[in-house]
Amino acid sequence: MEFIKAVGGKAIGTAVAGIVFFGLVVGIITWYRNPEPVNHFFGNVGKLLGWLAAVALFPFVTFSIVGWVGRMRSNVAGAVLVTIYSFLGFLLLWWLFDFNIRGTTAWTFTLVGVLLVAAYNLLVCDWLAERME
Q1: pTM higher than 0.90, yes or no?
Q2: 23 DSSP assignment
């Protein structure tokens, strides 16, 4: 019975996280396609908050991949996973700003943000891998 509860809980958790992540992605795409009304309200801060929410949820949405890599017990596999997640976060941020990050300050903030996301991904993926054992 415990096995069914555990599998059911993980399936429901994955479904809810997937729905939330899908909603965020659809919201960002809708915002990207018709930015004028939303930009009056949010501007770039909203893009950054959407990006932070997306990269924060991504490891939880893909927890089965994290568990699979965790069962490999390989530091290289974990490093590759964290690198891929961080690179996807960078691509999302770059896309949100129309692949146009200009100036030293903008690049500095972008790289610092990506490094913080990499550290977050490392901690969350490690935590998820421990929970999956």
Answers
A1: no
A2: H
